[in-house]
Amino acid sequence: MKLIDALWKDAPLATRREITPKLGFLLTVLLAIVWLIPFLWMGVATLRPASDGINLMAELMPSLKPTLDNIRDAWEIGDFPRYALNTTIICTGILLVQFFTITLAGFAFARLDFAGKSLIFYLFLMQLMLVPVLLIVPNLRIIAQFGLYDTLAGVMMPFFASAFGTFLMRQAFEAIPTELEDAALIDGASLFQRIRHIYVPLSMPSFSAFAIISVTSHWNDFLWPLMVINSPDKRPLTVGLSVFTATAEGTQAWGTIAAGTLMVIAPLLITFLIFQKRFISSFVTSGIK
Amino acid sequence: MRSISRRDEMSLAEPAALPVAASAAPRLHVLKRFSDRFKASLPAYLLLLPSLVFLALFTYGAIGRVFIDALYQRATPKAPVRFVGLDNISAVLADPAFTGAVVNNLVYAVGTAIPSIGLALLFALALSRTNAVSSALRAALFLPVLIPMVAASALFLFIFLPNVGLLDHYIGRLLPVLPNWLGDSDIALYAIMVITVWKNAGYYMLFFLAGLQAVPEDVMEAAHLDGAGPFMRFRHIILPELKPTFLFVIVIATLNAVTQVDHVFVMTKGGPSNSTNLVLFYIYQQAVEHYDIGKASAATLLTLAALMGLTALSFRTMANREGGP
After folding, report:
1. At the top level of CATH, which class does the domain A80-275 belong to?
2. What is the pLDDT of residues B145-185, one digit of tens each?
3. Residue A79's CB: how many other CB atoms inside 10 A?
4. Model pTM greater than 0.95?
5. Which range among A165-169, B28-32, B258-262, B316-320 shows the weakest confidence by mean pLDDT?
6. Nearest CA in chain A to B269
7. Domain residue spans in chain A?
8. ipTM of the predicted structure?
9. Hey, are the CB atoms on B122 and A134 less than 8 Å from each other?
């Protein structure tokens, strides 16, 4: 009770005695615990020795004889370093090209006046609704026509333009005072020099917000790489994990599945725990990616 | 008053065009104005070009491709394509697997949107005050948002495992009969929905947290002094303030219900007996498993048409949010 009082000490004095908000808070605490149970099980099951047998597999109390065998098995069965490398290449490749396209397009919308501006603006806006994942079938045909079937470049290409990123950069660039640009203009700076040396350095928070959204969403992409990639050595983490799970499920090796899952999500979870505030604020701006 | 300010806006947008309009010869002038305008616009077009190329290929080109592919069909996988008109569309509409997937998808959309939005609102209301405890709880509720759907599915495969799985191990004792969560065609879709709610509630919570910051504290206090209890304040102050947030979150939740099908692939492959088949998974099956590009395109086209309806509804909301051109 004391703890709850402490949590409400900044509430308006008169409402502090109300009971409903506190019940809601308690319910949320219970649900947050429920929300964490799958992660808890993943950790406990990863460290549980195979000798505990299948009937103890669901036990959330950690085993007294923890072992790293499951992690070793997962590491040996699944080709996780290779999958991780492929995912890293895909996410980095997409992000670098996106930085280029969204900076230029964002600047055009923020600072330039041109014929057909509304029309082009709506062409971008529509992309937010026509999410690429719906267009997997035609996009696969286009990728195949380019000879990019079963290549990492084929996985990346449909995401090179980003309406969300363009709008984010437009917003960031509009907030930069034009006086700065005028000064550079007088000094004879070209358009690209002004973007490179004035707009980009001053918009770093928006770039990092976009990077967080872009990397997490492509790190987690599944159906599209599943369709484009055929060779086992080009699978990203998600496709690799699904194949690994299907294999290990057959032998009821749940400890190994937990270990494999842990390896796939650990990089994201660690990065999140370090940059928690930044992640949360980026996701608020994301809405539709 | 209003018309004057409107004029001002226009002349700001096209500074050179308006004053000249009265003087030059009409025909020449139109051409000249057009080429001047194009010349002035050229830098912007060059900057937009890289983005437009990819939009043209993978958004608008892809839509064109769907329209064309939906009109053609092969008799056998190796036979040449021939024009079949609307046959693919009618074949898809007559396919019980597709209509079943549409019904499943509607149940899935409503059954995931309502609980996850309701929970998200509860979480946001409970955790709107910033302190160490509520930040930790927010982080806990947000964790599922970050991980791939495939990873969530791998964990829930065990949770729903009959007899020895987490769910049966802990709550199974309370039930008279243990259902086979993913193997029973009456239950499997709801089991799939649980994962989606678990994964998305924390995401929608963020939008409600942001929306709640717009609720003025002094109005809440004044309402309290006037004798409004927590429910009255929620109903008459908080809810109206959150209306735009609700609209926005509903659009995202609907989009997610159509586009998130990774767990169907990993956990059930649409089964048992198509009870968890969703539209996007049906499209995937037609294209990849049956090599039927015609039917897959026809189904894509129908889904796009349905989403366009939603777009029309939400377009204004989104345009306002992005601030207009």
Report:
1. mainly alpha
2. 999 999 999 999 999 988 888 888 888 778 777 888 888 88
3. 17
4. no
5. B316-320
6. A246
7. 19-66, 80-275
8. 0.89
9. no
